Here is the input.
Amino acid sequence: MALSGDNDVHLIHAYLDGELEVATALAIERKMAADPNLRKLAAEIGALKKVLAEKFPPEPLPPRLRSRVEAAIGLETRRRIPSWAMMAASVLVAASVSSTLTAIAVRGTAPQELLVTELVDGHLRSLMAAQPTDVVSSDRHTVKPWFNGRITQSPRVVDLAAQGFELVGGRVDVIGKTPFPTLVYRRREHVISLTEISGRNQFNVPFGWRAENGFNMIRWSDHERSYFAISDLSANELETFAKIFQESAG
Here is the structure.
């Protein structure tokens, strides 16, 4: 597949800047995975962005100006996820995208490492979106049926609000061209993405906990399904979430 003109170039710029909606971002990812010219172009643009970010780091806003900006546009009431956390995530996603493209381009990259990278990328994209979910609900009886017809598996959905982990909703993440269910929980202002991979799609990922691009990730399995929880929560709190989820009925 060859470059199709300026539209591809514009889409890659928008993708690397985190300006695409989830569906379009996934489409351009698949296109880059199939086209070495697009991968090369994206890598070059990403490298340039990285150099510019290193040479010209953003200066922090003075506290008084920051509060005036937030008050002017109503960020504190419009968004439950801090805008400043999203800004930090946008910086992280540039590095994450670069690592994803490198992994795709290198022959022999372990499938489990690609899986981890794509999971982190999905979490980052959700933080940069207007909301981290496709379906918004704290009711597991609303979230679980939403996946019917969208994916082949029905995820295990549990209500953990009483334990301090509020169910926010769910979304579909595409990993290795296969859609999987991701549940979204919130602990205070921290977002947790919990992706479930079941059956023949399970990957032999040899870790229980690891840190990746500034996020903590925990994996566990119940033999039929594997779960991957990603968040900027501390490792201890994320481990508590994993333990409570495993012990809860759903």
About this structure: Residues 78 and 166 are 18 Å apart (CA to CA).
